[in-house]
Amino acid sequence: MPELAPSYIIVGAGVFGASTALYLSRQKPSPTIILVDRFPYPCPIAASHDINKIVRSDYGDIFYCKLGLKALERWRTDPLFEMWYHQSGLLKATDHNADLVDKTLENYKELGVDVGAELLRPAELKTRFEGLFSETDLTDVENILWNPSSGWAEAATALKYTLDAVTQNGVYYITADVTTLIIKDGACTGVRTEDGRTFTAKKIILCTGAYTAKLIADSAPTQTELQVGNRITACGVCEAAVNLNAEQVEKFKDAPAFVFDANKTQGETMPPTPKNQLKFIRDIPFKRTVEHPASGQRISVPFTNKERSQWTTPDKMPTSIKKEIATVMDGIYGKEVEGLIVHDIRFCWDGITPDNNWYITPHPRCQNLYIATAGSFHGWKFLPIIGEYVVQMLKGELGEEERKRWEWDRSLEDVPRNVLLPEREVGDMEV
Ligand SMILES: Cc1cc2nc3c(=O)[nH]c(=O)nc-3n(C[C@H](O)[C@H](O)[C@H](O)COP(=O)(O)OP(=O)(O)OC[C@H]3O[C@@H](n4cnc5c(N)ncnc54)[C@H](O)[C@@H]3O)c2cc1C
């Protein structure tokens, strides 16, 4: 451990914390950095810890389309990341956001890049991909985006490899639960951990995902001006993994990733992993609103017990959740998934913002406190580049557009309702 007070404490070793630590540890002269998380890395309760995640540049919002292209370039070429990226192609079907496909294609045109993306009509899907989607429920689906140059990455492995690099660069990784931030006279000077330790630093960066609102509320319950409020809501979704035998792997091995944002299916899947697992996600989130008596707030707080935050066996999950997963599997693949058995299942929690933009910002009412998180169900793919922006923010060098998108006090009032912000509570599903 360093004798001098470290320059930075980063709380949270998901993609935001890992990427921040990576870019900070490459600075010259090298600063002293402590990275704290509840678990040894890669943390199994992090949203960033997963079997796989989709990596794409297909966005209706040209800002994230550009960022996605930049991230993809690194996924393809950076020795730290290229091993974990698989270019399977990505399908995206939608029924309620009819112009999303057009907007995405227009973005590529405007940026002058040819990624090979095209619009597919539902009937075309049935005949392509060697008939894998001949049984897909295409009720209400109008447009499908096909981008052969998107793909997916081995999530937990890529995160671990990044954190290996981070610790090799001299970052101190501490396994501890941060119970409170040390906040006094309008400034943050460090963190206290559950095991009674205190760490101080010049700058404290919260990369705490779905746990951010509770940590700030626990740390300064009476300071209303510091609270997260409606900026970040902890939201969970359920995902499930199937172990495939050799014959099943053969059937799905050339499948694209598929985001199916339509009809009752509402879910997604990716091709088999090197460990022969096929993953499905139910894309209808939920929150878990609880009273926070000390601050007088109602806050959505993720479960932290193993059975509701890490991979577990299906017998530990509510029946209604298992039925939702079955709806996704059946809706995407129909009879192709007959006989497949879910072996592992998980609630996965992320911090969601009303406008889908993240927070990469100083806390304007607490000196030395910075926030870099709230991936809003789309932050993972930016692992190779997010830290670059966090370092720019710390130096006050963020570009104007990035600063406005990610600042703490941006207006959220006229933002259209984010369909990813759930109305349902996890308690409603505990049957
Ligand atoms: C099911 C699911 C699927 C997704 N799929 C995709 C996808 O395909 N592509 C994509 O780009 N994005 C995807 N996302 C979004 C992406 O995973 C997240 O936006 C991103 O991983 C969030 O990273 P993070 O670092 O902010 O938070 P996390 O990864 O959750 O990390 C936060 C870390 O902070 C630690 N922490 C919190 N509080 C404390 C404390 N008090 N003390 C110590 N440690 C603490 C936690 O233990 C955790 O390790 C998905 C999200 C979910 C939930």
Would you give an account of this structure?
- It is built from 10 helices and 22 strands.
- The protein starts with 7 loop residues before the first strand and ends in a 25-residue tail after the last helix.
- The strands form 5 sheets. An 8-stranded mixed sheet has the order 6-7-5-15-16-17-14-20.
- 47% of the residues are buried.
- It has helices at residues 15-25, 62-77, 100-111, 122-127, 155-168, 212-219, 246-252, 319-333, 386-394, 400-406, and strands spanning 8-11, 33-37, 52-55, 85-86, 90-94, 118-120, 143-147, 151-154, 172-175, 178-184, 187-193, 198-200, 203-206, 233-243, 257-261, 267-269, 277-287, 289-292, 297-300, 342-352, 359-362, 369-373.
- The longest helix has 16 residues, at 62-77.
- Helix content is 24%, strand content 27%.
- The chain has one domain (8-406): FAD/NAD(P)-binding domain (3-Layer(bba) Sandwich), CATH 3.50.50.
- With 431 residues, it is an alpha+beta fold.
- The model has no long low-confidence stretch (mean pLDDT 96).
- Helix 1 runs parallel beside helix 5 (155-168).
- The site of flavin-adenine dinucleotide has 37 residues, from helix 1, strand 2, strand 3, strand 14 and strand 20.
- This is FAD dependent oxidoreductase domain-containing protein.
- It comes from Stereocaulon virgatum.
